[in-house]
């Protein structure tokens, strides 16, 4: 090798070491360092390029993204499984007592109806009807029958004709429409416990059911809040990424209408969040109108809002099929996720505003202290 070739080789080596300022320190690190310093050097992306190439970085990035998404999905699946198991436990604890209570109400209703009919029949002639005692007896029996009907209807028992009641009583069966602790109804109740809505139309009446409800809520409510917070953050990040990707590619006619200052963009984002939330409530109201025939749009929208805010008055409660309860159980967490996403975005805006106003607050405080 001639002197010219050696000089050219040295120049190429020098250029390679000094061309990329990001790779140069890592190469020096690979050559000169060892031990703890070498381990520290391998913590950067360029060191990982030297160790495993760009494929290693892409593989690690994909794994990190997968972990970031897998955690909320795993928590959601755990919450769904926890809700289903809780609903089944509630069913096993409360269904026998519910069947016994329904049977007792049917027997009381049938008995009071028979007493009323017998009293009216015994006092059917004109002379007895004119007497004060006969009228009093009929009123007493009628009042007892009215109380039995009221108690039965409040318990969800369908009050029909005497023949139908006696037939149901002989069969000793509880129909599915009136079974408060069916599978779908039990899961629905478990979801209202975890979301702290508590409509109040279905409650545990046994001691074991009440004790299990306390333990179920103590574990399930924090899990529910964790799931909602995780999905809210994930949705907020997704919305921010989509907005950052779409905004530069907007048409000129639309981009010209967009505000350029930061305050205008924040106001536009808040307005879009409120509009999307109300659109979501409107879609939920339209869905509930398909199942609840006696609800108009305003009642459905009112129910969705009361449910989303976890107020849960209990004045409006869905009484449709099991598909309705499935829609309710899926819409409530989704609405909470949307609300959490708005809260996360609002917290970011508030933090930025607070940091921006810090110099003015310090200046104002300093002027007050100087006075």
Automatic annotation (TrEMBL):
<dbReference type="InterPro" id="IPR003280">
    <property type="entry name" value="2pore_dom_K_chnl"/>
</dbReference>
<keyword id="KW-0407">Ion channel</keyword>
<feature type="transmembrane region" description="Helical">
    <location>
        <begin position="297"/>
        <end position="317"/>
    </location>
</feature>
<protein>
    <submittedName>
        <fullName>Potassium channel subfamily K member 1 isoform X6</fullName>
    </submittedName>
</protein>
<dbReference type="GO" id="GO:0022841">
    <property type="term" value="F:potassium ion leak channel activity"/>
</dbReference>
<comment type="similarity">
    <text>Belongs to the two pore domain potassium channel (TC 1.A.1.8) family.</text>
</comment>
<keyword id="KW-1133">Transmembrane helix</keyword>
<feature type="domain" description="Potassium channel">
    <location>
        <begin position="176"/>
        <end position="236"/>
    </location>
</feature>
<dbReference type="GO" id="GO:0005886">
    <property type="term" value="C:plasma membrane"/>
</dbReference>
<keyword id="KW-0472">Membrane</keyword>
<feature type="transmembrane region" description="Helical">
    <location>
        <begin position="181"/>
        <end position="202"/>
    </location>
</feature>
<feature type="region of interest" description="Disordered">
    <location>
        <begin position="1"/>
        <end position="23"/>
    </location>
</feature>
<keyword id="KW-0406">Ion transport</keyword>
<dbReference type="GO" id="GO:0015271">
    <property type="term" value="F:outward rectifier potassium channel activity"/>
</dbReference>
<feature type="transmembrane region" description="Helical">
    <location>
        <begin position="268"/>
        <end position="291"/>
    </location>
</feature>
<keyword id="KW-0812">Transmembrane</keyword>
<feature type="transmembrane region" description="Helical">
    <location>
        <begin position="208"/>
        <end position="231"/>
    </location>
</feature>
<feature type="domain" description="Potassium channel">
    <location>
        <begin position="277"/>
        <end position="325"/>
    </location>
</feature>
<keyword id="KW-0813">Transport</keyword>
<dbReference type="Pfam" id="PF07885">
    <property type="entry name" value="Ion_trans_2"/>
</dbReference>
<dbReference type="GO" id="GO:0030322">
    <property type="term" value="P:stabilization of membrane potential"/>
</dbReference>
<dbReference type="InterPro" id="IPR013099">
    <property type="entry name" value="K_chnl_dom"/>
</dbReference>
């Amino acid at each position: 090798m001639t002197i010219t070739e050696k000089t050219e080789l040295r120049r190429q080596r020098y250029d390679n070491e000094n061309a990329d300022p990001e790779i140069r320190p890592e190469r020096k690190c690979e050559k000169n360092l060892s031990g703890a310093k070498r381990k520290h050097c391998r913590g950067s992306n360029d060191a990982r390029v030297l160790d495993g190439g760009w494929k290693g970085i892409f593989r690690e990035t994909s794994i990190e993204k997968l972990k970031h998404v897998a955690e909320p999905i795993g928590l959601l699946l755990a919450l769904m499984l926890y809700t289903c198991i809780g609903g089944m436990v509630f069913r096993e604890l409360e269904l026998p007592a519910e069947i016994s209570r329904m049977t007792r109400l049917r027997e009381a209703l049938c008995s009071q109806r028979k007493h009323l009919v017998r009293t009216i029949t015994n006092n059917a002639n004109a002379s007895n009807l004119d007497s004060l005692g006969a009228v009093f007896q009929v009123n007493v029996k009628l009042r007892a029958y009215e109380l039995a009907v009221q108690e039965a209807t409040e318990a969800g028992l369908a009050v029909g004709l005497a023949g139908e009641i006696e037939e149901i009583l002989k069969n000793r069966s509880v129909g599915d429409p009136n079974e408060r602790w069916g599978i779908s109804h039990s899961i629905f109740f478990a979801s209202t416990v975890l979301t702290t809505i508590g409509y109040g139309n279905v409650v545990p009446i046994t001691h074991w059911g009440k004790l299990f409800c306390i333990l179920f809520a103590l574990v399930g409510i924090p899990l529910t809040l964790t799931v909602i917070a995780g999905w809210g953050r994930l949705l907020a990040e997704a919305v921010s990424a989509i907005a950052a990707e779409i905004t530069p590619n907007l048409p000129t006619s639309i981009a010209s209408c967009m505000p350029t200052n930061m305050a205008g963009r924040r106001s536009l984002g808040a307005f879009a969040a409120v509009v999307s939330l109300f659109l979501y409530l409107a879609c939920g109201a339209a869905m509930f109108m398909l199942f609840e025939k006696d609800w108009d749009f305003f009642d459905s929208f009112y129910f969705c809002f009361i449910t989303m805010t976890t107020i849960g008055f209990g004045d409006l409660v869905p009484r449709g099929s099991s598909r309705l309860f499935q829609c309710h159980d899926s819409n409530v967490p989704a609405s909470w996720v949307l609300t959490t996403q708005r809260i996360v975005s609002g917290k970011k805006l508030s933090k930025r505003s607070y940091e921006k106003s810090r110099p003015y607050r310090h200046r104002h405080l300093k002027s007050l202290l100087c006075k």
